[in-house]
């Protein structure tokens, strides 16, 4: 059945010694379309000079390719091995001219350099020198990768293509002008929404005498003193000598995280239904930690052999954040929202928790999909400040047990 979709054109640029990789790029793009196009309303179109350019008289061939193919693309993928290609009047080769033209236009560029073995007799020192010089160039929205086998190239390109497609959608300003939804955050313990680039403070507890924590030695109550209350831990063991140390570690871990809820603010006069939020979360420092449930380490007990309920319940289904890490300082969140009524705000049912060791900027870029509209993007961010507080182990134990 037919469906409406946004089309992004991807230029494939390379010399003639990587024909297999050119075919792989086309195959991966078609696979992405098969798996995603109908659901996300996006179609990727591979552009190749041999299929999308027509010759014209009295004009430089590369100028024709640039006008008919290169300038029409939304992103470029360049692949190199041992050759640069035929030099042009303005660049080291036609491929280099195409890549530079796309990069200078501020469009994303993905560059891959092959490390596959080659017969030394087939190498041209002049070609290698031009290739080495080209590798030193950088582009504002560039990605540079190396690969050793065709399978590694396919795996890397397939994974990184999905990331770049989200960036393409996020960078399309046409989407932002037709929607009135806004992505914001709220502290887990608060009620007010945080504004863009809001400053949030996180407290890091430093135990100044952590090396001096003694073994736990309980003081038995007087025999005449009655003991009453609700039993919530049943113990069969002996006194736990590590109890104080476990309390300190548990307290430090709990205090290190700050919880947030996602908020979708709909300021339009119409409601929106069946929304799927695909978020890319990044940390500028790269040392942040994000989890989708409040960290609840094992509860310290005064005796060994106690029964306790460990772990944290992670909720699934609509309205709940699903979180996974994709690399250092890079996470992917997904959230389904059945409906957000006109001029209303919807919050995620669960929180996500952030831990940082030093000041950091957390940025969330959200691509929102709906069967009733084109994908649109939202963005928010927050500045995380770390406040260090010194405490003795006795103060920590007292605070934990209070």
Question: How would you describe this structure in keywords?
Answer:
single chain, 402 residues, alpha/beta, Rossmann fold, Immunoglobulin-like, 2 domains, six-stranded antiparallel β-sheet, six-stranded mixed β-sheet, 9 helices, 26% helix, 32% strand
Structure, described:
The termini are far apart. This protein is α/β, with parallel strands linked by helices and 402 residues long. Residues 173-177 have low confidence and may be disordered. The chain is elongated and about 105 Å long. It is built from 9 helices and 17 strands. Helices cover 26% and strands 32% of the residues. It folds into 2 domains: 6-170, 3-Layer(aba) Sandwich (Rossmann fold); 181-401, Immunoglobulin-like (Sandwich), CATH 2.60.40.10.
Q: In a nutshell, what does this entry contain?
A:
With 402 residues, the protein is α/β, with parallel strands linked by helices. The chain has helices at residues 19-40, 49-52, 61-68, 94-104, 125-135, 150-170, 173-176, 243-256, 393-401, and strands at 6-13, 42-47, 75-80, 109-114, 142-147, 181-187, 193-194, 198-207, 258-266, 272-283, 289-291, 322-327, 330-340, 345-347, 352-355, 360-370, 373-391. It contains nine helices and 17 strands.
């Amino acid at each position: 059945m037919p469906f409406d979709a946004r089309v992004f054109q991807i230029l494939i640029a390379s010399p003639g010694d990587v024909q297999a990789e050119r075919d792989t790029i086309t195959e991966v793009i078609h696979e992405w379309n098969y798996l995603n196009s109908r659901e996300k309303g996006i179609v990727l179109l591979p552009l190749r000079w041999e299929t999308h350019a027509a010759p014209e008289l009295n004009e430089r061939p590369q100028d024709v390719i640039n006008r008919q193919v290169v300038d029409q693309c939304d992103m470029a993928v360049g692949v190199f091995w041992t050759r640069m290609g035929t030099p042009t009047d303005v660049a080291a080769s036609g491929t280099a001219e195409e890549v530079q033209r796309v990069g200078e236009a501020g469009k994303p560029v993905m560059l891959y350099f092959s490390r596959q073995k080659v017969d030394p007799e087939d190498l041209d020192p002049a070609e290698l020198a031009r290739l080495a010089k080209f590798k030193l160039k950088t582009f504002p929205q560039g990605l540079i990768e190396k690969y050793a086998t065709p399978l590694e190239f396919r795996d890397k390109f397939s994974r990184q293509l999905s990331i770049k497609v989200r960036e393409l959608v996020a960078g399309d300003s046409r989407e932002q002008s037709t929607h009135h939804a806004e992505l914001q955050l709220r502290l887990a313990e608060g009620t007010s929404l945080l504004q863009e680039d809001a400053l949030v403070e996180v407290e890091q507890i430093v135990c100044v005498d952590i090396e001096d924590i003694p073994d736990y030695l309980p003081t038995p109550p007087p025999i005449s003193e009655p003991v009453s209350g609700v039993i919530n831990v049943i113990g069969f063991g002996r006194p736990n000598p590590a109890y104080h140390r476990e309390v300190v570690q548990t307290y430090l871990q709990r205090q290190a995280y700050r919880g947030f809820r996602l908020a979708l603010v709909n300021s339009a006069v119409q409601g929106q239904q069946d929304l799927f939020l695909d978020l890319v979360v990044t940390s500028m420092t790269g040392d942040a930690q994000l989890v989708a449930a409040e960290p609840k380490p094992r509860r310290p007990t005064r005796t060994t052999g106690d029964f306790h309920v460990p772990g944290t319940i992670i909720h699934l289904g609509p309205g709940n954040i699903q979180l996974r890490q994709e690399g250092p300082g890079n996470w992917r969140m997904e959230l389904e929202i059945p409906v957000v009524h006109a001029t209303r705000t919807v919050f995620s049912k669960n929180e996500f928790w952030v831990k940082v060791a030093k000041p950091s900027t957390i940025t969330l870029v959200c691509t929102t999909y709906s069967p009733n509209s084109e994908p649109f993007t939202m963005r928010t961010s927050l500045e995380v400040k770390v406040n260090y507080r010194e405490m003795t182990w006795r103060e920590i134990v007292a605070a934990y047990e209070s």
